[in-house]
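Support case: user asked for a sample of complex input and structure output to validate their parser. Sending the pair below.
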Amino acid sequence: MVDFNPSQRNLVGIEHDRVTNVSSTDFPGYYPGEDHAWNLDKFKENFKIQISYLTDLSSSFDLVGVDASIANAFRRIMIAEVPTLAIEYVYIENNTSIIQDEVLAHRLGLIPLKANPDYLRWFKKDDPDIEPTDYDTVVLHLSAKCTTNPSAAPGTTDPKVLYNNANVYASAIQFEPQGRQAEWFPDGITLANPDILIAKLRPGQEIDLTMHCILGIGQDHAKFSPVATASYRLLPTIDIIGPPLTGDLAQKFKNCFPRGVIAINSKGEAYVKDARKDTVSREVLRHPEFDGRVRLGRQRDHFIFTVESTGAMTPDEIFIKSVQLLKKKCQILRKFNLRT
Amino acid sequence: MPSATNENEGTGSPEVPQEEFVDQEMADGEFEFDGEIDPNKIQILPGASEDGTAASFRILQEDHTLGNALRYMIMKNPEVEFCGYSIPHPSEAAMNLRIQTYGEITAIQALEKGLDDLLDLCSHVEDEYRKAVEAGDYSTVEP
């Protein structure tokens, strides 16, 4: 086994046809004489979090110093195991629209609701004896009826003018507080995006339904996932090895990368200005004139996370919940006494 | 967190039917267990070594999320000779974890240390993240 130069250990090599050095090797016993045992203080020294931006709906932050298995655990939990509220049961009183009942119910389920899931308890779906209570179920109501607009000018074809209520948007959904929900949710349960089009109606058609919303996780159904998506990428590295590139070659080199990655200094040499902006298209590896003069790679323990929330919670809440959920998984296992 | 502890003896012994009781008060942002804990959550599979230095565990309702993270933490223990996890069939929500140690500690001790270390790691990540959010050293508009 070749022992890399320790500064190279952290880098995933990117060749034109494959990646090299993918697995982490920081385990005790892998490099003789070195101590890679788990040490919380050493981890705390090397660990860094840097937030690039944080808005109500999306966030990008860097996690430096963790292993891929941990970062991936956070990502998986954000997507599939952070609980949210979504419409689950739809009781249809009247649906004379063109949208079939089941299609309408499916669309309603996918609407993201802006509700703090901490205030609700889990509802046991499978038990037929359990009735919904105000602790675990939120009731919403949707009622829309389309009529002709008598004051529309003759000859108009725009359905928004010709008819009243032709388009049923998510803003038409009303929250009906049950029991003590009026005090727990003083602002009501609102939609994350009230402009979602649910159905289109024509005069004489009507939709009248009641919906029950419960807590769920993404593993059960994707409608319960709190993120549009949560993903991460590794920080790219670009090393110019050997003599610096100058002149036309430098310009060509610069054009192989996205704008802002490579810059040309006052001596006419190309240098790496900001490797983070690189999308790693490996364009530079396609040109034989750069053979052996550049080395592409990714830093194995630097994760650039992007979290896009659907609106139920802010992205920082979602990440914190995912870390807490991983802790909870460990705590559940830790409580078991396996010794006979 | 509920204070009741859950006991699960290894295969072959009668199981104490104690289950975690859900805290019935309304949560104020605190995380609570969402239901009873399955007493079969983690079992030791037959074929463990006599002195307990090598054992396989079967954990229900877990997958790569916990499996890979736990495997990494257990491998960071210098007393552990081998640690690996597998998911026998994707349709079954179960995960097998095998730990073999060099002999100074038992496999169960290695598992407990791995879980504790993972807990410490998560606590630190959460603290640092909260600090970073509070520090406010970031933009509040999407570029």
